[in-house]
Amino acid sequence: KVLIDVPRSDLAEELAQSETKIQVLQDTLQQVLDRREEERQSRQLLELYLEALKTEDSILSKVGEPEAAPRKEMDVVDTGTSSRDTSATTVLSDRVLAALKEKPAPELCLDSQDLELVLKEDTAALASALGWDKQKAGALQEACDQELSKRLNQVQTLHSLRSTSKGKKALP
Fold first, then answer.
1. Is the pTM above the cut of 0.70?
2. In CATH, which of 1.10.287.70, 1.10.1490.10, 1.10.10.10, 3.40.50.150 is domain 94-167?
3. Which of 56-60, 69-73, 142-146 has the highest mean predicted lDDT (pLDDT)?
4. Contacts (Cβ under 8 Å, ≥6 apart) of 122
5. Of the candidates 2, 53, 3, which has an alpha carbon nearest to the alpha carbon of residue 23?
6. Interval 25-60: pLDDT, tens
7. Contact 127/137 with Cβ under 8 angstroms?
8. Where are the domains of the chain?
9. Which residues contact 74 (CB under 8 A, 6 or more apart)?
10. CA distance between the termini of the chain
């Protein structure tokens, strides 16, 4: 790095070489530094990929296991015939409702299945269950939608990376 930063004319004089040779030397040194940086970044990316694979495998193994018991904390939906009925109950469990009320960013605390339930919930019923106005409940649903979309994109990216890496293993 120091040799690259030294003015070409000073380095040429010190090494008793022409400025053209010093330029070639500095360019070569810069290429070596660039390659090392690319290798470092590649290693970091590979480490993240391997970590993501481990995480995905653990998630997939959890998804593959049947739940020990169905969620008994779910309430039955009774929305009535009017969508303006603010006394409508929700299918969200007490645990999910508590997380929605208490957490500053509840969409980050909920699993994907709970995020889907929040999105399917009627905004008015959600607002009523949380004691919020419809605008705040709608904003919460939007945040949950964005988080769920982000998670699904990450899973798709992981699958794409996995299929790409499997395809490269098959090559000679």
1. no
2. 1.10.1490.10
3. 142-146
4. 79, 83, 88
5. 3
6. 999 999 999 999 999 999 999 998 888 888 877 777
7. yes
8. 8-63, 94-167
9. 91, 93
10. 39
